[in-house]
Structure formats: structure tokens, C-alpha cells
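seq as requested:
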Amino acid sequence: MQVFGILCSTGAALFWAAAVIMFKKSGETFSPMALNLFKGVVTLLLLVPTLWFAGVPLFPVRPFTDWLLFCTSGLLGITLADTFFFMALRRLGASRWAVVDCLYLPCIILMSTLFLNEAIGLKGIAGALLVIAAIGADACSGSSAVMSRDDFWAGLVFGTLAVVMIAGSVVMVKPLLEETGVLWASFVRLLAGVAGLIVIAVIHPERRVILGALLPSSAWKIVLPASIVGNYLAMLAWLAGFKYTLVSVAAILNQLSTIFTFILAAVFLREPVTLPRMIAIVMAVSGALLAATAV
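C-alpha cells:
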């Protein structure tokens, strides 16, 4: 099962990188909130029959604390984190987001140390600092000249919030994942996440625009496959990786999405491959891997 977990974590990285490219295109039509709600609803519609075919009950008898933790994980990792992710992606672009996304691994390792008693040392701290330095190098390289400074720093803040919340949402349920089916865990997190998005959408001043994303349109040609690949397939593979292997190992393999995203952004979005950005990517990935050697 360790091998299966490794394959799932690697697959999650590839699925997510492909989805980031499609979501970047979709973000030109949908707002971040609308895009998040759409992908959540699509995934929920796919996940419910998946559980039914697998013979997994949707609402089994489980301790209240299990429901509370998984629902909180969904609100944190889907309702909030994914919305912040789309806000960051719209401002930063796919390749620059790939640099910020390298904060994911140090965050996972730091939280695993604080809450799961996994050891971290100077290497872990140095790795995190190297990732932060990479983001700073990209900011000062002049490669952000195509966007305003306000957009760059807003994207950086939103991206950092997204990564921290995503990391926290999986670390908080890691002990439960060891004794819980991946399908059911995905369903509860997603149900809570979508419920949170619907509540926000209903009270939002632009609720008609947000809810209008659920009506068929030409934008579905991109956002529908992006939702299937990036949320349904990637989410199942992501949680399965954390279930069947160590948190640190899964997080390292998830970080491959940085390289995948950088390559795909250059090929399909024609985002510039500049030397400063390549250096930032190398620094960020090196920092993430250095942090990983601390566990």
C-alpha cells in the first residue's frame, strides 16, 4: 500500500498541475467564488454515485468529533483555501503560482511537527526560508512587470493563505484518515465545503453572477474538465496518498506539481520562461526538498 500511496500522491500532483492551467483559462470568465462553487458542485455530483457504486454509506454512524473534524477540514480547505487559490491564480498566473505553492511542503512539515509529533530540525527551517527567499527573488526580478505591484502582493497574500489553509486542513484529519475510507472522507469534506460556499454565495451582493456559473454556458468547455481532473481525480488521489503513506512523503510527491505546472504553463499558456523565474523555481523546489529531509 506504500507504493499505492506514492503513485496516488504523484498522480495528484499531475492532475492538479493540469487543472491549474485549465482553471487559469476559466478564471478569465468566472469569478474566484463562482469557479470554486462550480467545481465543488460538479465534484459532489460525481462523488455521490461513486460512493453508491462502491457500497459506501453517505451518512454512517460515526462519533460527532469525526464529523466535526472532517467538516471543519472542508470549510477550511475548500470553502476558504480554494477561493483564495483562485484569487491568487487570477493575479499571479500559473507559473508564478507554482513558486508560491512551494510553501505547501514546509507548511505541512511544520504542522506535522506541531500537531503530529513528527520531528523537524534546522534543515526544515532552512528549507522554509529558502522557499520564502525564492518568492522574494521572483518579486524583485522584474518578472512581475506585466502586472501591477498591488496585484502581485495581493496574489502573494491570497496564495499564502490558500497554502497554509490547505496544509492545515489535511494535517488536522491525518489521524482519522488512517481508519477512514478515502471516498467517505472526500465526500464529507466536499459536502461541508460546498455548503459553506452556497451560504456565502446566497448572502453575497453578486449572488446572481456567482450562482449563474451553474447554468450551462460556453465556459463549461474548459471549467468542466478542469473540475473533474483538478477536484474529483486530484482530491481522491491526494487524500489516498496521505492515507497510505507518511504525511511527509506524500507532501514531497505533491510538490512535483510545481514542476508540472511550470512546464505546462509555458507550453499551453505561453507564460514566459525567464532565467529569474527558472532560478526561483529551482530555489523553491530545493527548499521544499531540503525541508523534507528534516523528517
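The first helix runs from residue 2 to 26.
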